[in-house]
Amino acid sequence: MMVADHGPIGRYLETLGAWMLGILWMLPLLYALWSAFHPAAYATNFDPLAPLTLANFKAAWQAAPFTRYLINTVLLVTLILAAQFVLCTLAAFAFARLVFPGRDLLFAVVLLQLMVMPDVLLVGNYRTVVQLHLADTILAIALPYLGSAFGIFLLRQTFLTIPQPLDDAARLEGCGLLARLWRVYVPLAKPTYIAYGLVSVSYHWNNFLWPLVITNSVTTRPLTVGLAVFATTDQGIDWSIVTAATLMTSAPLLIAFLLFQRQFVQSFMRAGIR
Amino acid sequence: MRRETIHAYLLLLPAIILLVAFTHWPAVATLIDSLYATPHGGRPPPFVGADNYQGLVDDPVFWQALVNNVWYAVATIPTSIVLALLMALAVNHALPGRAMLRMAYFLPTMLPMIAVANIWLFFYTPDYGLFDRIIALFGGGRHNWLGDTSTALPAMIVVAVWKEAGFFMIFYLAALQTMPTDLKEAAALEGSSRLNYFRRVTLPLLMPTTLFVLVNAVINAFRVIDHIIVMTRGGPDNATTLLLFYVYETGFRFWDTATAAAATVVLLTIMALAAAFQFGVLGRRVHYR
């Protein structure tokens, strides 16, 4: 459907073009894979018989406290996800199903965050965190992202599609507000939670600038900041080890993506359709 | 107060407090800070009015950051959107290795920008990098892609497009898959060519998606500077300094928080204007279902 009209030649050209773009797109990653799995001498020498090795990964893992960075990232991502799920669920339910004065105004206030993201407000947030005496903690990295307009919006849209009679039935059976939320709304919104969860985890696993600004020690740095510190200061130009470290830090997310490709893609789609 | 009202406020309280404390309050505080001098010691900083903004106007580096960022946005946004659309069209119909191709396009999105930066840093290395090796095949000489003021910013643009296009492809793909097929049959009956069909039917139906992608692309062009920090640190000679990088440097390397606050206000204004333009002007011309 791109340039050519019907006909077999057009089809071939389209396929060829698509694949050339695909190969071009894979090239940087293939290059990184090559140099990470081969001795430094072969980093830029594409001899198909070059010996494979895992030594670069071992060297990278030992050269910097990546185990600690990995733990920090897992803690960070878990903390953010858990808090976002709870806070956004409560707020989304209020916006979707309760009637109260100032609802539209408050919702507009929330939506403002979709345009003005905390990432840009480094200076202001840095000062707040320092005043709270939380600088250089994992909680500090998480704080600006816990109240998520995106999550509230996404869950509210989902809650709005849940039939009111289900809610009424639960109410007749004597369920309180939180019980209805927990028994009716949360189970029916499961696909949205999965979608939002995957988007949130991949965003915060990869987030860099705010963690860079607010952390200052090995015990708090996430993988991304650890990798940057490692790549710029500790290593000269040993590309094999740097690329090994790079692949290592992205591996958990990449492997998860390759295993659950369909869920990931559908989640990103679902999260994007508003 | 009614019980439902109290319940609603209680449910909203934690999320709203955090949201306001880390989005709305810092935005307002930054605006206020930009009117005061940088605090020193324990004394409250004096009110200086528009002095910090005058400082920005007088700073050639700030102007360069602004101009760089505009070029960066102008080059990155349309390129990644057009590529995203082409990718989506390509993998939307049956062709050999479709699943593999879709993965190839999408994979860069899953990588942290910081990892992308490291990989491309290697790519751009003089002599050893793949770029120079390919050029050497054609008899070209070594080139310091990131060290040359004329190629450093384009090099950053290429990285951004590579990282972003696959992400936007997903949204086009979602839109293409929900497109009604009866339109296509009707067009085929009328003997409409594929190119004509694409221009008259597909493209207009994709407008809401394009608007959504556009908003995201604009935000990203001003929000993401991870690759700048790792690959060039704004250099050479400020050739790759973007606005947020300018904020980062003045705020956290020179600790000139007043100037950083003023620059943040400029950044926020640009993003607000972009949002207003997109929803106001473009929004009216978009076809909504």
Percent helix among the residues of chain B?
over 70%
Name the CATH architecture of the largest domain in chain A: Orthogonal Bundle
Specify which chain pair forms the largest interface. Answer: A-B, 97 and 96 residues
Q: What would you call the structural class of chain B?
A: mainly alpha
Q: How many domains make up the 3D coordinates of chain A?
A: 2
Summed over residues and divided by their number, the pLDDT of chain B gives a mean of 85
Number of strands of chain B: 0
User: Averaging pLDDT over every residue of chain A, what do you get?
Assistant: 85
Corresponding CATH architecture of chain B: Orthogonal Bundle
Q: Tell me about the biggest sheet of chain A? A: none
Tell me the fraction of residues in β-strands of chain A, as a range. under 5%
Q: Can you give keywords for this protein?
A:
heterodimer; A: 274 residues; mainly alpha; MetI-like fold; 14 helices; 0% strand; globular; disordered N terminus; B: 289 residues; 13 helices; 73% helix
Overview of the molecule:
The complex is a heterodimer of chains A (274) and B (289). Chain A is mainly α and 274 residues long. Chain A has helices at 8-37, 55-63, 66-97, 103-115, 122-131, 138-146, 149-160, 164-172, 177-188, 190-206, 209-214, 223-234, 239-259, 261-272. Chain A folds into two domains: 8-53, no CATH class; 60-272, MetI-like (MetI-like fold, Orthogonal Bundle). The two termini of chain A are 26 Å apart. The model of chain A is unreliable at 1-5 (pLDDT under 50). Chain B is an all-alpha fold and 289 residues long. Chain B has a single domain (58-285), classed as MetI-like (MetI-like fold). Helix content of chain B is 73%, strand content 0%. Chain B contains 13 helices and no strands. The longest helix of chain B has 33 residues, at 60-92. The mean pLDDT of chain B is 85.
